[in-house]
Structures are given as C-alpha cells and as structure tokens.
Amino acid sequence: MNSVGTGAYSTSSTGVLVAGVPGAPTSVVGVSGDTQVSLSWTAPSSNGGESITDYVVQYSSNSGISWSTFTDGTSTTTTATVTGLTNGSSYTFRVSAVNDHGSGNYSEVSISSAPHANSWTSVHIVGVMDIPITIDASATLEIFTRTHYANVWEGESTTECGTNAADSYIYLLDSSDGVLASDDDNGMNRTIDGVVTPCNYYASYISVDVSAGSYKIRASNYSTAIGWAITGDPYDLEYRIVYP
C-alpha cells in the first residue's frame, strides 16, 4: 500500500499450525501391589502439534490437597509403576503429557486402592470355619494348612514329597459357596523356622489365580454323605494374597 493505493495481494501461503502444549491424558487406571501401584493411561487426543516427549506422574495421599511428583526419568510410554508407597494407605494419581512447549493439563484424578503387603496371615482353625477374603485386583491366592507341626512357617518352599492321605482339608469358595479350588493332603515340604520339614509333617497347599471379588477359605472336610464336617483336632492355616 502507498499513496496511490493498495497493491495486489501475494499468493496464499501454506497453512501454518500454531503449536501448543498437549491435551490431558485419559483413562488412568491403577493396580495395587506391595508398596507400589502400577498405572496405565491413554495418550491425549491432541499432542499440541509437537511430539510428546514425556509424561509427568503425580500422586497424593490426602485426596488431592497436595501432590508429589514421582521421579521415573523421561519416558513416552503410557505406563508407570509408582514405588515407595505405604501399604494400607490410599492414594490418588494424575498424569500430564509434555512436549517442547511444556506440560499440558493433568488427567482427571484416578483413585486407586491402597497398596498391599504380600505377607502371610495366620488363622487357628477349630471345627468348620469360613475365612472371608476380599481381593481388590487380579492376584494369586496361596493357602497352607498344617496338622502335624506347631511352629510358625517361614520361607516359601513347596516341594511335593509324596501323598500322605486322600482327604481335602481346604477349599476356596466364591461368594455363592461354589468351590473354586481344593487340595488333597499331598505332603508338601514347608520351611519352618529356617528348617525344611520332613514329609511326615505334611501340609496341604493351594495356589490359585483369582480376579477381584469376595471369596471364602473354608477349612473343613467334605463328603457327599454328610456334607461339610469337622476335620478333627484344631490346626493352623496360613494364607496370603500376592498382587502383581
């Protein structure tokens, strides 16, 4: 444009995308473990016009009043395992995507169940007993009974060393009393106080993969003639829930 007037326009340029920060990740899911929670999420629908270079994971132990950033290095994978948590404490999590222009908005808060310790729980059995079990996520449930040894179990030796009897003493039931697993008294070695027990101090053992839900461990004997029955002398049972 000059004093004479406006000149001709230039030819149209190729469109230019104005880049910005990424959108928020979605579908954040947490699975509890021992002092840790494994997270997964879906990448944001918009990367802001630039490649995503990292994800920032934050967690809160006070329902989002304050947040801590989990230090896991730089990664573009849509998973992370947050470690160093306290078993039995509840946590919430959120995730933000990062590109060369900065961090985008955080995902909606994901509430995860508390981390769990994969430790043994001991129960003294008298008569027919049901032990209620709640599984928060997919896990392996391990159960031991012992009828001939009085010490506390330690270690994880489960070497089979011969069948001592044909009776079953432990059953895993679902919430409708359906039997999911049982075990014959099959002569498992078990490490007790640092010493491996001989076969004549035998124990029954169950190891079964289960999904989230409510279950019962039933310590009993069973026959089609009389149904559930007392197995005899009082004995002890140990179980643990092993989360991934």
Automatic annotation (TrEMBL):
Pfam families membership: fn3
Protein name: Unannotated protein
Keyword Repeat among record annotations: yes
Annotated Fibronectin type-III domain residues: 21-117
Keywords: Repeat
The organism of origin for this protein: freshwater metagenome
InterPro entries hit by this protein: FN3_dom, FN3_sf, Ig-like_fold, Striated_Muscle_Regulatory
